[in-house]
Amino acid sequence: MSSLEADPEVGRSVVPPSPEGTELLEGAPVALGGPRGFEVTRTLPNKHRRMVGAWCFLDAYGPHALAGSPGMRVGPHPHIGLQTVSWLVAGEVLHRDSLGSLQEIRPGQLNLMTAGRGISHSEQTPAAHGPVLQGVQLWVALPGAARDVAPSFVHHPDLPVVAAGGLSATVLMGELAGEVSPAACFSPLVGAQVTLAEGGGATLPLRPDFEHAVLVLDGSATVEGARVTPGPLLYLAAGRQRLRLDAGPRTRLLLIGGEPFDERIVMWWNFVGRDHDEIVAAREAWESRSDGGRFGRVRGYDGPDIPAPPMPTTRLVARGRTR
Fold this sequence. Notes:
mainly beta; Jelly Rolls; 7-stranded antiparallel β-sheet; globular
């Protein structure tokens, strides 16, 4: 999924950090494709806290009723220096990319695209689709040593599941409670969808060297004593060995985490780089791709490529994970 804004930071309000090391990061509505576009709620990057581990971007969308609507239509656009992680709760999305990949994703499956030195892709609701679309799109910043790797795309139709009492957790990325995802990671992190039975509760083991965050997808939950509903992202500082979850109605939530990412990055439009000049070069390569060039061509999407926004009048500055 594309960020259509040059500067994707959102979340101007935040509940101050508590003595327990939690912060409630407010998201903001963003219309992909303009005011009448497909609406998502963005919680990362947040103006107060830009990253959770290497996770640097989080859009949640839906449930959207698709009757009389084209659904998602995100035209070809470029990426560098990151991985895109696509996860659905309901519906279908069709992925195309400049490597020639053509892959539909459904709930319970993972699409993982590693941009590395450069790739372009599109995403759209396929012609044959269900009545509702709901999911999340995340980006993982690649560490400096891996940010120029060759681009790749992998579809994972089967993922490991942790089951205990009233809890079921599908491990998207990394490791949780002894279950390891097959998805490639370039830094220590975790991503999982956790489902809780109505009125149920459970305790998940955590790596104490990881910081974590929880986003409620459906229902509501009490997380370490904090009541959370769909919308904001609950940040949890490093140092925890376990996480207590208690559900209201049937609840689905997203857990992300990782080692604090200590590299300073420039995150502009759909690019993750290290300095202004790197971003300028990527933008120029996208805008001047008469022969495909660095980002290749996406074949089969029935619409225009997304143009890059103008560069700012001042130089972009690398930033750390917090303000």
